[in-house]
Amino acid sequence: MKSISTLVAKDNTLNRSHWLIFLFGITFISCAPRTHLATVHTGYTSINENDKATNPKIDSILKPYRAELDLTMNEIVGYTGEMLPKSKPESKLTNLLADILATHAAKVSGMKVDLAFINFGGIRLPMLPEGEITKGKIYELSPFDNKVVILQMSGAQLNKLLNAVAASGGWPVSKELRMEIIDRKPASVTIHGTPVSENATYTIALPDYIANGGDGLEFLKSIKQIDTKTYLRDAILEYFIDMKNKNQIIDAQLDGRITKKR
Questions:
Q1: d(C-alpha 71, C-alpha 33), whole Å
Q2: 17 versus 64: which is more confidently predicted?
Q3: Taking the CA atoms of the chain, what radius of gyration do you get in angstroms?
């Protein structure tokens, strides 16, 4: 049997060997040329239906997720009575979505909302088809995680926003507004039938993309946001599902909220 002293002596010899190796390694590393990460190249690799034919491994990885995703996205959330197109200065689809936003913002905030806007480019489908509408179709319509926020702005600030809307040919806006566009400028503007007062305060609901200065509306960034902690897409889904549960068909009207005159 080896004595404790022998084991200790051997352990000390090993420790000295470890230190020698460590010191040699440090010396070697310090003398070696140093490298650092200079550039990172990022990108996306698209995976489509043709990939599974050339790479069965990809298909086997995606298969369980695809099945679950298809089940979720193919869920029917509502029914439209007719095709709802998107166009300017107003359309049935843009009117519907802006009204949904106004109602939703008022409900979740408990505030009286004077008006709601959605940027035209934020609606990513040219129309909703007639008949069954799936959850996946709503995600195509509103693919961005845009939060619903509320701004309380002066009439002067609202007029700047309306100038931008008129210059672009019209945006989705809720039914409380009536406005003419003449030579790309707003005219005959009323909210709830009353002309806009520059000194009044208006409660406006809109996606945070706009409130954060999107589409060139930098001046809105200075206005304090009231975050409803909800998303525009979820508001749309909630409305469709509610209508389905009530056995009601989704429809919309053209009511002249924005008209364009040459």
A1: 55
A2: 64
A3: 30
Contact present, 156 and 239 (Cβ < 8 Å) = no
Rounded to two decimals, the pTM is: 0.76
Is the separation of the CB atoms in 79 and 132 below 8 Å? yes
Q: Please, are residues 109 and 212 in contact by the beta-carbon 8 Å criterion?
A: no
Give the N- to C-terminal CA distance of the chain in Å, as an integer: 108
60 compared with 44, residue with greater pLDDT: 60
Lowest mean pLDDT among 10-24, 85-99, 102-116: 10-24
Rounded-to-integer distance, Cα 174 and Cα 112, Å: 13
Count of beta carbons in the 10 Å neighbourhood of residue 162: 24
- Of all residues in the chain, the percent with pLDDT exceeding 90 is 72
Arithmetic mean of pLDDT over the chain: 85
In angstroms, the CA 108 to CA 165 distance is 26
Containing 108, the helix (H) or strand (E) segment is: helix 92-109
Nearest 10 degrees: Cα torsion 107, 110, 111, 117: -30
Q: How confident is the model at residue 20 (pLDDT cuts 50, 70, 90)?
A: very low
Q: Looking at per-residue confidence, does 187 or 44 come out higher? A: 187
113: helix, coil or strand?
coil
Q: Is 38 exposed, middle or buried (0-12, 13-18, 19+ CB in 10 A)?
A: exposed
What are the structural domain ranges in the chain? Answer: 69-261
Select the CATH number that applies to the domain covering 69-261 from these four: 3.40.50.450, 3.90.780.10, 1.10.10.10, 3.30.2310.20. 3.90.780.10
Q: Distance between CA atoms of 30 and 6, rounded to whole angstroms? A: 36
